[in-house]
Amino acid sequence: MPTPLIIDTDPGVDDAVAILMAAASPEVDLRAVTAVFGNVPLAATTRNAGRLLALAGRPEVPVGAGAARPLVHAQAERAERWHGGDGLGGRATALPAPAAPPDPRGAVGLMAAVLREASEPVTIAPIGPLTNVALLLAVHPELAPRIGRIVWMGGTLGAGNVTGAAEFNALCDPEAAHRVLTQADVPVTMVPLDLTTRCPAGPDWVEALGAAGSRGLELAQIIAHYRAAYRDRYGVDAVALHDAVAVLEAVLPGTLRTTPMAVRVACDLGPARGATVPARRPAPEGPPVQVAHDADMDAVLAGVLERVGRLG
Ligand code: BDR
Ligand code: CA
């Protein structure tokens, strides 16, 4: 029986790889994709989610539009430099149009409906800011027992990728991240930057993706802008597939090795804002978050490629 899955996302180039991979994975039943502000504004992430589902041949999967901004403070910055002004490396309008307008229930209403209707525990894989998920938990605490696990790409135990301390998804909405990581009702796995940057996809990987078929080729074209940004910024010809690493764990639990840690998020307005700070001892700091710290990185890269390649 496939595990029901909701992806909450801000597409986003690595989000695109993650969504297509989930669509190609028989271990999960993709029940909804919900959009949040993040890499680019909400209107673009919502349209991109619909376009990516159309590209994946999954037009029946509903898309819900969620938060257009963080819960408390304004968004620090967006990530057009990495993902392009349209969020998909300039390729958004080359994709098929969304099959339907966004679901009228919105992201939180759609997630709630999926949870209510599911007969099995649902996995939620947020791969952007945690605003929609924090709102879901706040508005519908009665549905928390229906969530099997939350697998979030975000946070860092070491250096950040936006500030010295903060990873992008955490910095976008630290208050929401704190809300989700410090609750005890739903088990959370955090897939931090420290891990996702350890499996860069190089030219061979992108070339193999492009050779997999027309969808693989489209994804490889979407990746081109992100790849150029990596070359400019880091001087390497390889890209981090952050969100796909987390979604692979959601699809195939146990792919990543984890260790339990209580994690709090710095929510002050100083230089540490958005830092995900682990407690080095067990409780009373908070409920344990399973923090992913290791994996067979070659297998992760090969697994993502093989799955996306199935779409042709
Ligand atoms: C995260 O930030 C976004 O730009 C990516 O899509 C990913 O979710 C990595 O820090
Ligand atoms: Ca993302």
Topology overview:
Layout: E1 3-9, H1 13-23, E2 28-35, H2 42-55, E3 63-65, H3 80-83, H4 106-117, E4 122-126, H5 131-139, E5 147-153, H6 168-172, H7 174-181, E6 188-191, H8 193-196, E7 200-201, H9 203-210, H10 214-234, E8 239-240, H11 242-251, E9 256-261, E10 263-265, E11 276-278, E12 289-295, H12 297-309
Parallel strand pairs: 1-2, 1-4, 2-3, 4-5, 5-6, 6-12
Antiparallel strand pairs: 7-8, 9-12, 10-11
Helix pairs in contact: 1-2, 1-10, 1-11, 1-12, 4-5, 5-7, 9-10
The structure holds beta-D-ribofuranose (BDR) and calcium ion.
Keywords:
globular; single chain; 312 residues; binds beta-D-ribofuranose; 12 helices; Inosine-uridine Nucleoside N-ribohydrolase, Chain A; alpha/beta
Fold and architecture overview:
This protein has helices at about 15-25, 40-55, 80-85, 105-115, 130-140, 170, 175-180, 195, 205-210, 215-235, 240-250, 295-310, and strands at about 5-10, 30-35, 65, 120-125, 145-155, 190, 200, 240, 255-260, 265, 275-280, 290-295. It is an alpha/beta fold. It has a single domain (about 5-310), classed as Inosine-uridine Nucleoside N-ribohydrolase, Chain A, CATH 3.90.245.10. The strands form 3 sheets. It has an 8-stranded mixed sheet with strand order 3-2-1-4-5-6-12-9, sandwiched between helices. A two-stranded antiparallel sheet has the order 7-8. A two-stranded antiparallel sheet has the order 10-11. Strand 4, helix 5 and strand 5 form a beta-alpha-beta unit. Helix 1 packs across helix 12, helix 5 crosses helix 7 (about 175-180) and helix 9 packs antiparallel against helix 10. The longest helix has 21 residues, at about 215-235. The relative contact order is 0.16. The mean pLDDT is about 95. Calcium ion (CA) binds near residues 10 and 15.
